[in-house]
User: Fold these one by one.
Assistant:
Number 1:
Amino acid sequence: MKSRRIFLQKAGLSALALNISTFNPISAMPNFLDAKKMDEKPLRVAIMGLGSYGTRVAEAIQETKRTKLVGVISGTPSKVEAWKTKYGIPAKNCYNYENFDAIKDNPDIDAVYVITPNGLHKDQVIRVAKAGKHAICEKPMAVNAADGQAMIDACKAAGVHLLIGYRMHFEANTLEVIKMRKAGEFGTPLFFQGLSGFIIGDPSQWRLQKSLSGGGAMMDIGIYSINGARYMLGEDPIWVTAQETKNNPEKFKEGIDETIQFQMGFPSGAVASCLSTYSMNNLDRFFLNGTKGWAEMQPSTGYGPIKGKTNQGPLDKPHTTHQAVQMDEMAAIIFDGKKPEVPVNGEEGVKDMKIIDAIFKAVKTGEKVTLKLA
Amino acid sequence: MKSRRIFLQKAGLSALALNISTFNPISAMPNFLDAKKMDEKPLRVAIMGLGSYGTRVAEAIQETKRTKLVGVISGTPSKVEAWKTKYGIPAKNCYNYENFDAIKDNPDIDAVYVITPNGLHKDQVIRVAKAGKHAICEKPMAVNAADGQAMIDACKAAGVHLLIGYRMHFEANTLEVIKMRKAGEFGTPLFFQGLSGFIIGDPSQWRLQKSLSGGGAMMDIGIYSINGARYMLGEDPIWVTAQETKNNPEKFKEGIDETIQFQMGFPSGAVASCLSTYSMNNLDRFFLNGTKGWAEMQPSTGYGPIKGKTNQGPLDKPHTTHQAVQMDEMAAIIFDGKKPEVPVNGEEGVKDMKIIDAIFKAVKTGEKVTLKLA
């Protein structure tokens, strides 16, 4: 699919040609319709930060119907050269971290997807906003809520969208569980459990440097359990408690959390019990329990496929590349004003940051921290 | 099996007859051997408290190889009459709560299994000990650690055994996971999760009366997660934190916990995250995660069958009635001095009570409570 899309882009073939050349007319229909939309107006995206996740997003964009990778911002000239060749990116759409404010004068770029270390997001998103481009920012949006709010303010002032890279918010099985919960099929939701963990490798990576990451596992993957608690219960927490355990202080230095257990309470009386760790694999599970039923997702946030079941049976929505769905949905938000089932805007991002701030405070003080997110 | 055993007991048939009458000689072999042991010397048990769990134990005893139900202690004469008939219990082995100290003069009873409300265990077990009989006490052994210690002291002074009704400590799949953990098949254990919950019915039952129960869900089922954390990780906790949520204060009055989330830390750096509730079904799950593998049991503590799997495959030990295995193993402890894989003595019970005391303190103070169980 990816190579076909690239081929078609390069060859300048029409959407109609794409449809005709497809064997299966049923599966081709959405392609036909959406490719038509793309001809009308694709969201032209530059990726800032050409690391492994940036690469994943670039690949996913090749699968999208309404977005196009048109530019890059990177501090590594060799990467820029490789991407220019691979994705047919024109030299005029390539920037580095010093000169990318000039993007404001580039009419061929609509949005910048910031996929850099967390600690850099704030300044970079603000610069993107000032350049008049929509900002898509990888999660966590920042390293604390205050920075997140500054990003919202800058984007509002510039009249551009700020969207957070919450790919799970668009995942089909996740949305199915949310739909079932809203329809009352689990009764009253009372408990959410989120386990998020993997054993992190290279100790020199930016994710283990406080100035770049803003924290450890919590910032990187604990946020999935926070997201999950909120969208699966359908509420925002009013308190958090948290307990940190650090078994390897050499690898996980001051300010880099290795393992945090955290709990949240919600206005309805529902509770959440979560764990975030950089020291264990086999932890990617969501569990929602209500008075009438339950949902279990495992894996719940990996790149897919997401697997799960409810008291009614398996969750069987087909897998699609998360980042591709995310990008197309973000194009719909920007172009059509579409309201996603679960918000992915800056305000949503700041709620998560406020919760992370509270978790860190709870770890530090040992006390229950109350929250007011509304 | 139950009715056959009763028949054989009544008919006075020999163990050899049992063996010969069995179609499958392989499955019959243990029966043959153990029935022989029983002929030699069964543990003759009186049950104190003829409620639903007492009834379950009585039925299980019919399946055992080395124990025999020979007496009852009850405050309800109609129940005593029914049990006399059903189990062939002689009138001289029937007592009530006023006169059961006279059991000391009854040479036909070896042990009393106390299956009464938690708040009564202490005095009743001490009276059993003073009567010179071995005490088997349903869990939780008491309503706090101090009472539990008093029970230990009384049994020691009387030279009788004190065993706690920890049926899971003898369950085959549970023991398989423990064996695998000890063999290092999960690597270093780092995380245990225990979820224990069901929706409790009749609000007038003793379990919802503080003076009889000593607490709510924690005393009744939270203790399973505490047990699980300890035997699956193979350590005793050094700290606990806990958060209580009460959504129905009419049903769950002062001192009766509805839902408690609790966390424990262990000397190795492992952590446990648990939930105990009387307001949710579908919560009976253990999960053990180590550096090399994991085990999941769900259901993990129900009356069975226990189901589970590890990273190596399904746990497939066949189901046997938990209470029957427990009783036979307890006979082996008493008669043979057998050391069970996981202790079930009073000291083990007091450790759990100390943890529950600490959880209640953590709920009350909102602070981390340190523990020294060794």
Number 2:
Amino acid sequence: MVFVRVGHDIAGAGGGRLTEEQDIVYLAMPDRFTPPRAIPLPEAPAFRETVPMGPERLFRFSAATWNAHRIHYDLDYAQRVEKYPALIVHGPMQAMLLMEAAMRHAGGVPARFRFRGVHPYVPRCRSVADGRGDSRWYDPVQRCAGRPSGDAGGNRVGGMSGLLHGMRVVEGSAFVAIPLAGMTLAQIGAEVIRVDRPGGGLDAARWPVTAAGQSLFWAGMNKGKKSIAIDLTTERGQELMAELVTAPGEEAGLYLTNLPIRGMAYASLAARRPDLVMVTLAGDRHGGPQVDYTVNPAVGFPVATGAEGSDAPTAHVLPAWDCIAGNLAATALLAAERRRLRTGAGDHVKLALKDVAAAMLGHLGIIGEVAVNGVDRPKYGNALYGAYGQDFACADGGRIMVIGLTSRQWRVLLKATETEAAIAALEARIGESLKPEAARFRHRAAITELLAPWFAARSAAEAGAALQAAGATWGPFRSFAQALAEDPDLSPDNPMFRMLDQPGIGAYPVPASPLACAGAGRPDPRPAPLLGQHSEEILADVLRLPAGAIGALFDDGVVAGR
Amino acid sequence: MVFVRVGHDIAGAGGGRLTEEQDIVYLAMPDRFTPPRAIPLPEAPAFRETVPMGPERLFRFSAATWNAHRIHYDLDYAQRVEKYPALIVHGPMQAMLLMEAAMRHAGGVPARFRFRGVHPYVPRCRSVADGRGDSRWYDPVQRCAGRPSGDAGGNRVGGMSGLLHGMRVVEGSAFVAIPLAGMTLAQIGAEVIRVDRPGGGLDAARWPVTAAGQSLFWAGMNKGKKSIAIDLTTERGQELMAELVTAPGEEAGLYLTNLPIRGMAYASLAARRPDLVMVTLAGDRHGGPQVDYTVNPAVGFPVATGAEGSDAPTAHVLPAWDCIAGNLAATALLAAERRRLRTGAGDHVKLALKDVAAAMLGHLGIIGEVAVNGVDRPKYGNALYGAYGQDFACADGGRIMVIGLTSRQWRVLLKATETEAAIAALEARIGESLKPEAARFRHRAAITELLAPWFAARSAAEAGAALQAAGATWGPFRSFAQALAEDPDLSPDNPMFRMLDQPGIGAYPVPASPLACAGAGRPDPRPAPLLGQHSEEILADVLRLPAGAIGALFDDGVVAGR
């Protein structure tokens, strides 16, 4: 930090004299923007003047004062290099505007003028001067600037704040997909505020739960978020949530939801903030109440899953469509925010769980298989469709999955299982090369017969070690508990995991994001909030409500804390 | 379009006279940037001068000429409002620089100077003047400006270009996850260039395939992309791909990959373009060759899937982990690009398929269930874990899945199946309310027994109609072919689908993105490219190679067309 005092003494030939003393403070280039402390306004200003503060005015002042410092006209530079959230108003322009306001209201030319710029001024859209009748004037206030997020509360990673540091998302959600979308963003640095009703949302008790009834699912889906509990049956509660969703600032105005909350329709929110980005997940495109477990049988997977020849449809345990839709919703939010940054336009992105499944059916070629080939795929057990992949029983009852999809995988598999000669003999017998992957699928039963003795002669551990040494593509079948007990990839040996104490539950291995960034790092996982844990903080810091108003909201039950 | 001719006649008291005639063309505000046609350079310029062209120079020229037009100093405005890709160099500055260059090289003061600006000049980093010895000078050329994407070739939506219009991604990939990531971005407007080797990549023949051997899978995973075929075993091919990945422009420098292609390591690419954003998917965190079908058994799902009491592990048919990882990779690319825009820093984001599965095990609460509760979840058939959800056989052999997870779903289910009284009697008998979802899971067998007769007395169609009328959450079990035949959501009745002719395959229903945007629209689905279909176009438009050099690359087999 360097202080420089500059003195000007201006006197004309025909008299008149102006003495100016200016103290300039030079700061080191920051790593990120630190928001200034808000300075209280006078309770009842005698006047208020609003001055349009657009980039043209900033340019003209720069041009008039021949000041090429880019923080005044080059937003990209101001944000990237000097880490300001917006263009900066010139200190001398603030002084000039305040002095002019003082002259208009106090009358006459001031004998003396004192001005102190206590923080960089980033008005974004307009500048407000408040004054009092006693001839004292105050610093303008940041009316439209949002507060850069992510610094308050919670555990932080060693120096790494994640890719989305400085983005704030509001989430009105329950269950899997949208909570997963929000958490995916939270785990790479976004400030994600989940809004629930006091007492908890629809998923507050979703299984698995602990013996004491705490939801392990909820804790898993809401890691690193902030929680505010609002009574959304009240008008004041709905108003609060709408304010939260449409709070100003380039980093805000982002809303993820799968719930039809009163007052939170896109049209009414966009009336408050036209550049709102809202992502809405529905069950189906008609607005019907579909969930993962009903969409999956409807698009056909359970009928194609299970033992060859069986006619029992088998539903999946992993809510795969929810997981896919949640990740797609996160992509949608980022893509729409990217467009907003370039065009200024908000958007309402709608997706339906069933459409996600229907589209994937097309992406995977299954629609083409039915429509073009006329094939209705039957169950193939655990075989890999269209190439070679099969599960084998080992001597100790363990099972192993092996894959021979690419030429390399196939070659390595035969080498590891010492079946090269037997397979060559099979090729000679059937008069067909097994190099094309489709041939391996057609002849999979014969191949499996040749490979099975190798597995049957070994324990799963021995077979796995040999496959691993050969560089084969393989995996053991395990229960969840076996996986946790045996696999270092599912433990804090994997840098993705941390032993974390989740309040109300205890300590267990908790995953961070699977995304590890060389530059932005991988933020450590943070616990899920307690319900309403951040209610007061959010009302104060995001909505900027004074303490009295916050107290009244709690007293009236509109908002609940933890 | 308006033409304005402005005349200046400047004469001093002491003689000297300058006549200037200026024609100004005013164009309507465009919807998007249309790149100008490249104008050929003189073959052998007599001189070349490079002028740094940064925002300070643009600001100073604006200030000197008192020109507040924001396209010269306000990047955000230039991009959002007037749709330029970058700041615009003042026409008079170009004229001035060219005239000065002419004076330096021709000697003396020109008697006459003629200049025609044929398109907006967006140099980004430097301005190059080429000149010839015969005293003619040429328009500067866009040396560093990338070409805004998405306008060339393919079907376009009615007026809607998608959220990611103007982003270019290069993809070096095969199989599911990364191709899906690229396609997800392509379907919402990004220009995605997939690089394959001549003859096709590892997934060129992936099933399902048509009778003629065309891969329906490949067509599904590469919709709307551009294809270039490069022989990556050659140094020239590797050099071409590295140039493609690191091509200049804010919209470029984005690379998605799951393949270890020689010369495409992050470090060597970042040496060419330090702000490269690269997303790399591996099998596991150790770099091992895991695929969806080996990760899934290793983390435990197949052992928990299938009929209650059975000990046969059941693998999924949907490659769920690939689908989740692909969507997460798309999120990662957008998040890293967002950070690059704000900080100027590129990044290398790494994820592993197995980590994606391991993290999801944590997100869903399953790790906590093992570690905290000591529970190893067994198979529960098609039952919804932790609440009520079950499949039922109908009179005609059809099956239906119903869900009673929320209170509303449970209430509606009992009403629709006329079992309210029977359930009330059950509650009395067991002395326990079934209102808590966990109670419904514990007593699911008794509940199922009471609901089963209602289904057994109806055809699946009758039961479905009654459930639908009541607003229940339900779904039929269908094969893929049944789903296509019966469900309008899987047909062009759904605006997500179009009947599309895929070259080499034929016409069938093809899905667009599940993301429907009120503002940015939903681009119609576009066919997958033929291999190498865009090789020439990409070499000319992205790498800006002259025709002769492109011809040589084809002749030498470094590049292949369709």
Number 3:
Amino acid sequence: MKRIGFLLIAVVTVAGIVAHMAHASGQSDGDSSPIYGVKIPAGYRDWQLIAVNQLLFAGKGEQLRAQLGNDIAIKAFKEGTLPFPDGAMIAAIHWTRVPSEANNKVLDVPSPGTQSFVIGSLVNVQFMVKDSKKYAATGGWGFADFTDEKPGDKALHETCFPCHVPAKDRDYVYTQYAR
Amino acid sequence: MKRIGFLLIAVVTVAGIVAHMAHASGQSDGDSSPIYGVKIPAGYRDWQLIAVNQLLFAGKGEQLRAQLGNDIAIKAFKEGTLPFPDGAMIAAIHWTRVPSEANNKVLDVPSPGTQSFVIGSLVNVQFMVKDSKKYAATGGWGFADFTDEKPGDKALHETCFPCHVPAKDRDYVYTQYAR
């Protein structure tokens, strides 16, 4: 068991590194994600808000993030329905995080020393699309990662599902609805 | 001019401090904001996302924030319409920011040392409601700040408009639509 555990971690680690290198160097040619065939869902930016979060990558920048859901996903989040029904779609939008000197100046009056950070520019957009039959091998979810509206390559998309496995008890979804 | 400038800053500063103390110590009794009479708009949590941001208050906690807009506001943001038309409403939802050990563990594989922060709990919700006649004295905007669904007091609400004056060229709205 220990050896299998180590191998699994090694495989995921190598896949992660390879995916990161591939992501930095090139994209696939099509308009749908490799492995899963997920395209950018029309109108996803108008979906409702699930939650927001923030990432500080060690030496690789800072991000503000928002997760949006289509009507089926939002209904499931609100009602606590698990697994998510077929047709549920989740978008994760990642932006750079930049300090706002303008905000700091104003906020300094009621709250001296406050640091405000706002969105800089779009980094990438990720999607999870539920189809329990089509994506039976990956928990019922198809994955996609787009940068400049182009899908990342196969190596990148091979990392999606393994990273979501630890959230299996929440149907592979990390984000929780922000009330 | 210098004296007027100093006086203005002094008034805003004192108002800010008083408002903060009042906010910490008590709420008004009604279900609408003092001065403006703004109630919590029904269904605001389902409005579309304008943007997200983050605040680090000096010694007073950390927040993740999202701004949502009703259909009229979102259309104006997307089309760059200024001033915002009557009926536009903006909600600013403020949550505490907490580190996510679960996320860090997963993200550590592809990106060692990554720090992930997610939403803790709801702090307060603020609203801006556009009615150019009713709120002519405050740039056409009515303001409201609710904690636990109860509006803050008069002193708190006296600070809303002065803080938004520096954004006059964007019709008193700081948030910009995140694309």
